[in-house]
Amino acid sequence: MITSIALENFRNFTTNSFDQLSPITIMTGPNGVGKTNILESIALAGGSDWRRYRRLGELVNWDESYAAVELSFNNRNFETIRYVVKGNKAQYLIDKQISRASDVQARVAVMAFSPEMVTLFSGEPELRRQFLNNLLTPIYPEYAEALSTYQKVLKRRNAALRQQQRSHLSIWEEQLAESAAILLLSRQWGLHVLSETIEMDAKAFYKPSPRKVEPLLVFENDLREMVQNNAGNVREFLREKWEGLREKELAVGFSLMGPQRDDWGLEGVFKAKSKKQKVKNNNEDMKLDKNSERDGTKRVSIEKIQNSKFKIQKYNNQQPTTDNRPIDIGIYGSRGQERVGVIQVQLAALTILEEILSFKPVWLLDDVFGELDTEHQAHVVEACQKYQSFITTTNRNYEGIRELIELPETKVISLGDR
């Protein structure tokens, strides 16, 4: 658990520390006092892909040469993680030893729930890709390395396309295909496991780029084995596909396919309620046991075994009845249905991270209670008690915030008084 946060020249903070933190920490205060900045500092120091800056320099306070965040932990095999930004470079230190971002991500799993996340399925695809990145990087360090390599090589290849440097393209395509194969297979695995974990009648579906690669993304219970057994075929397919697209991409000046253009979504079943059910606040629909029988299909909970494999029953894609038809939540779901899907996907991701990593992840909630109705707030309040949660709000009168404040494990930090 994070026990303290020390900030140096980070955003609007100079030298500030927040000590004796609790399992639930609520930061209150008006807009502009730095509540979200604290969440961002935790995310960055924890290696998360959630960030709000365009350039690293934006993190450094005015007239200062560097910014730093230090997180202290208890009951872990390390004591501190320090994140330092100087110029256009960032560096991680675990117990004062220089470390890679992937080393940090494997030790601190961070999930962020921000206002824009409420429109996860109807919003821009980049938000959905970012969600998958945050799920997969702590689980599979090779994913983080492949993502970093892919982004760097993609930038170079796009520059070569714009400058009509034909002789360089085959070199970049080979490197792109190698990294892209890992990304595509990992995302397919992540969405499959997410479907089996989510506590609602729903299935996550993948739209890889290019779509014709999908038959080669053969699911296996063990992620590493899945990548090792299938990456060669995927890599060769992508290399040939990029070669075939070369003339079109030279004409437009950028890459027309690859993980930077893929997407995913959620199909869910929302049963019509009777008039009596609508009046009744039936929270049990959101608390179904993963091992319960439903529509003849047994939901099997994730079970971690010694080699980190999962025993998973594949999703039974039965033909829907007229009254029980799955819908693409991002396209056809109501605002309320999308919020249910977003909350359940967040909780499923937290469950997966805890099962694999054997420690509780950190959940960052940035002023989301104002976006949720009373029923949805109740689900979030319940989940906050399972993980270390950091919450920001401008209004202490939200019902969910009031409930959390009354809990003995909650600490409230009022930034307006600092």
Kindly summarize this structure in a few lines.
With 418 residues, the chain is α/β, with parallel strands linked by helices.
Radius of gyration: 22 Å
- Biggest sheet architecture: 6 strands, antiparallel
User: Given the C-alpha coordinates, what overall shape results?
Assistant: globular
Order of helices and strands: EEEHEEEEHEHHHEHHEHEEEHHEHEHE
Helix vs. strand class: alpha/beta
Strand order of the largest sheet: 2-1-4-5-6-7
Amino-to-carboxy terminus distance: 24 Å
Unreliable stretches (pLDDT < 50, length at least 5) are 273-322
Strand content: 15-25%
Helix content class: 25-40%
Q: Give the number of DSSP strands.
A: 16
* Overall mean pLDDT: 87
What's the number of helices?
Answer: 12
Kindly describe this structure.
Strand 11 and strand 12 form a beta hairpin. The chain is α/β, with parallel strands linked by helices. The chain contains twelve helices and 16 strands. The strands form four sheets. It has a six-stranded antiparallel beta sheet with strand order 2-1-4-5-6-7. Strands 8-14-15-3-16 form a five-stranded parallel beta sheet, with helices on both faces. A three-stranded antiparallel beta sheet has the order 9-10-13. Helix 3 (about 125-140) crosses helix 5 (about 165-195), helix 5 (about 165-195) runs antiparallel to helix 6 (about 225-245) and helix 10 packs parallel to helix 11 (about 375-385).
